Every structure is written in C-alpha cells, then in structure tokens.
Amino acid sequence: MTSVAPKHRRKSVAVHIGSVTVGGDAPVVVQSMTNTDTADALRTAIQVAELARAGSEMVRITVNTEEAAAAVPEIRERVEAMGLDVPLIGDFHFNGHKLLTKHPACAEALAKYRINPGNVGRGKKRDEQFAQMIEFACRYDKPVRIGVNWGSLDQDLLARLLDENAQQSQPKALEEITHDALLESALSSARRAEELGLEHDRIILSCKLSGVQDLIRAYRDLAALCDYPLHLGLTEAGMGTKGIVASTAALSVLLDEGIGDTIRISLTPEPGGQRTQEVLVGQEILQSLGMRSFTPRVIACPGCGRTSSDYFQHLASEIQEFLVAQMPVWRATHPGVEDMSVAVMGCVVNGPGESRNANIGISLPGSGETPVAPVYVDGEKTVTLKGDTIAAEFKALVKQYVQEHYTSPEHNAAPGTISAL
C-alpha cells in the first residue's frame, strides 16, 4: 500500500540557503549537526561529508571560539573539494557578534546563521548584539534561523510576562506563560530582524522543546501566527529507541498536519555510534509519511512460530544493506529507484501477497514448508529460487530490475527480461 502525503501544506515563504530551498513549494528538508570540534577543520569536514552523503541536505556546525570561526572557510573548501555542495549553517551563542566581526571570511563562508535570542545577550546588550548579527546577515545576504529553545529562553522576556501575569485577576499557570514566552521570543525577534533590514524571505523560525505534547502545541500556534518556514526538532530527544520514538511521535503529528519545512532529529549518539543515524531517522519519518522517498523500501515480516529459521531475517538485512550501499550510484544513474519497494517475507501466510504488491519480492519457506522461494516481479511470479545461493541470486534479480525499470536515457543499458536462473 502506498503512503499518502498530507493533503495540505501550510503556506510559507521560500527561503534560499545556498543550493537548498526551505519552505514555499519545496519538499521538507532533512538536516543535521556535527559534534566535532569545529576548530579541527579536517575532522569537521570529514563528518560534514559523512552526514551529507547519508542524506543531510544542510549541516550545522558549532561556531563558538576564535579558532572555530577561523576554521570555517577551510571546512567549506575541504567539503567542496570532496565534490559536495552542502550548505553550512553556523550555530552561534553568546559571542557570535564578536566572532563575525573578527572573522569576516567565516561570515562569508557560511550559508546561514542560527541565532538563539535567549542567549545572544542581556538587556541593552541583547538588542545591540542581536542587531550586529542581523547586520552581518544583511551585509553578506545570509538567511537566519531564529531558534528559540525552552532550555535557554530569554529570561528578561519571561520575567516581564510573569510580572504582567501576576497582575491579572486570573493568572495563568507557569507552563502557559512559558509557552507564551517561547512564541513571543521567536516572533518579536523576527519582527526586529526585519526592522533592521533583513528581508522577510531570509528568516526561518524554530521553537524547540523536549516534551512531545508541548512541542506539538507550540508549533501549531506558531504556524498559525506567521508564514515563516519552520524548522522542526524535539530538543534533547535522548538516546536510542527513546529518542527515535519521541522525535517520531512529535514530528509525525506536525508533518501530517502540513506543519514543518525542515527537520532535525536530535539524537544523543550511543558510545561509538554513528552521527548519521539521526539523518536516516529523519528520512524514514518523511518516507513513512509518504512525503519524500530516499531509498527503496524493504518490506519484511516480523517473524513468528512459522519462521523458526532466521534465514529471512538475514536476507532482509542483506537486501537493506545492499540497497543502501547502491544508492549513492543509483541516485544519479537510476532516477526514481528510491520509490521502489522490495519484499522479503518468511512464510506462505502473507509472503506471496506482500511479494506481489511490491515491485519485486521473495517469499521464503517457513517452518515445514517446501524449501523453495518464489520471486514475484510487478505482481507476477517469475522464478523460483532454491538452494544455498538464494541471497546472491535474489540480489542479482533486484539489480536487474533496477537496471530495466529505472535507468535514465543517458545511462540506458541493454534491454533484457527477468527470467529463471
């Protein structure tokens, strides 16, 4: 069954960030962030490349020190030398105005600045330092994400709203005031940026919290109050299953309502784990919602008492890894292959049906079943595999299917048909 994308999409202005468009009619963009020391230009460039190759369409890097700011142009050059055109986003806190002043090459090399109004300064300094950041964005024609985070909310604004609330005959609860402060911080900062000369279509907003329901409510309200593109993300989502499930629960609700123009899954990596996992999770969310396709979909059953052998599990894993490994080449030479579905089923109950519904599928024998594996191509049984070479033969059939059905004219291969081996 094909997933159905949201019937409507919240209207937002289009913001151009290097070669990537966020908002407007553009598809929802997946982004991520490095966790290397930005001052180490080589390591950071390598991680940027890893994230970009995994599918991160923009990559944010921390710019927190003189050394980090000085390294940004080199990082940009190294990434481009690897043949990658991925916009770099500078993440600034506390001292961004000073770093951009001292390192104009950094200001130029970045494709976008991220400013947190909660920690850009206090009192008069806040306004002055925020204005300096916006001045650089205007000077170098860079878009800005004004990113409000509940963990670093503008305390002056919160104090003012609390004082005003205390004067009311029916004061709101603290959580209500915090909610109002988050929205006001984002929207008032955006208005101020425009007053300072930043164009309306150079602003993206985010309003991140760590609670699923709180996040959903905040973005619903923010979406109704402006037409800026919105960056979605559950902040401090956590590790492993917890972080994946919480992020998916929050973002899927919003995306299905047409809210959100770019996403980041803020996972805490397992020790030694891959930073690219957050990119893959973001892609899976969008693909599961039918909003975008990134890699062929593998349909596999969970297993039961009918599948005492774990062969189908190994084959499903092999096929998944095979498809992921092929995608860097296939994406360029076989357009549309990301929409393909491949079924790897473990017995005759749902196996033949799921295999027929997929572009190509195999139904492996379950416990006590005849040790043969029929293969279905576009709903028709074409061949039956058996023996110890099923995995290799099925991968060859998948590759042949891709070559015959998704090859662009300039990469046209000799015609052929899938037949018995």
TrEMBL record:
<feature type="binding site">
    <location>
        <position position="347"/>
    </location>
    <ligand>
        <name>[4Fe-4S] cluster</name>
    </ligand>
</feature>
<dbReference type="InterPro" id="IPR011005">
    <property type="entry name" value="Dihydropteroate_synth-like_sf"/>
</dbReference>
<dbReference type="InterPro" id="IPR004588">
    <property type="entry name" value="IspG_bac-typ"/>
</dbReference>
<dbReference type="InterPro" id="IPR058578">
    <property type="entry name" value="IspG_TIM"/>
</dbReference>
<comment type="function">
    <text>Converts 2C-methyl-D-erythritol 2,4-cyclodiphosphate (ME-2,4cPP) into 1-hydroxy-2-methyl-2-(E)-butenyl 4-diphosphate.</text>
</comment>
<feature type="domain" description="IspG C-terminal">
    <location>
        <begin position="298"/>
        <end position="399"/>
    </location>
</feature>
<dbReference type="Pfam" id="PF04551">
    <property type="entry name" value="GcpE"/>
</dbReference>
<dbReference type="InterPro" id="IPR045854">
    <property type="entry name" value="NO2/SO3_Rdtase_4Fe4S_sf"/>
</dbReference>
<dbReference type="GO" id="GO:0051539">
    <property type="term" value="F:4 iron, 4 sulfur cluster binding"/>
</dbReference>
<feature type="binding site">
    <location>
        <position position="301"/>
    </location>
    <ligand>
        <name>[4Fe-4S] cluster</name>
    </ligand>
</feature>
<dbReference type="GO" id="GO:0019288">
    <property type="term" value="P:isopentenyl diphosphate biosynthetic process, methylerythritol 4-phosphate pathway"/>
</dbReference>
<feature type="domain" description="IspG TIM-barrel">
    <location>
        <begin position="14"/>
        <end position="282"/>
    </location>
</feature>
<keyword id="KW-0479">Metal-binding</keyword>
<dbReference type="GO" id="GO:0016114">
    <property type="term" value="P:terpenoid biosynthetic process"/>
</dbReference>
<feature type="binding site">
    <location>
        <position position="304"/>
    </location>
    <ligand>
        <name>[4Fe-4S] cluster</name>
    </ligand>
</feature>
<keyword id="KW-0560">Oxidoreductase</keyword>
<keyword id="KW-0414">Isoprene biosynthesis</keyword>
<dbReference type="GO" id="GO:0005506">
    <property type="term" value="F:iron ion binding"/>
</dbReference>
<keyword id="KW-0408">Iron</keyword>
<comment type="pathway">
    <text>Isoprenoid biosynthesis; isopentenyl diphosphate biosynthesis via DXP pathway; isopentenyl diphosphate from 1-deoxy-D-xylulose 5-phosphate: step 5/6.</text>
</comment>
<dbReference type="InterPro" id="IPR058579">
    <property type="entry name" value="IspG_C"/>
</dbReference>
<dbReference type="Pfam" id="PF26540">
    <property type="entry name" value="GcpE_C"/>
</dbReference>
<dbReference type="InterPro" id="IPR016425">
    <property type="entry name" value="IspG_bac"/>
</dbReference>
<dbReference type="GO" id="GO:0046429">
    <property type="term" value="F:4-hydroxy-3-methylbut-2-en-1-yl diphosphate synthase activity (ferredoxin)"/>
</dbReference>
<comment type="similarity">
    <text>Belongs to the IspG family.</text>
</comment>
<dbReference type="GO" id="GO:0141197">
    <property type="term" value="F:4-hydroxy-3-methylbut-2-enyl-diphosphate synthase activity (flavodoxin)"/>
</dbReference>
<keyword id="KW-0411">Iron-sulfur</keyword>
<feature type="binding site">
    <location>
        <position position="354"/>
    </location>
    <ligand>
        <name>[4Fe-4S] cluster</name>
    </ligand>
</feature>
<keyword id="KW-0004">4Fe-4S</keyword>
<protein>
    <recommendedName>
        <fullName>4-hydroxy-3-methylbut-2-en-1-yl diphosphate synthase (flavodoxin)</fullName>
        <ecNumber>1.17.7.3</ecNumber>
    </recommendedName>
</protein>
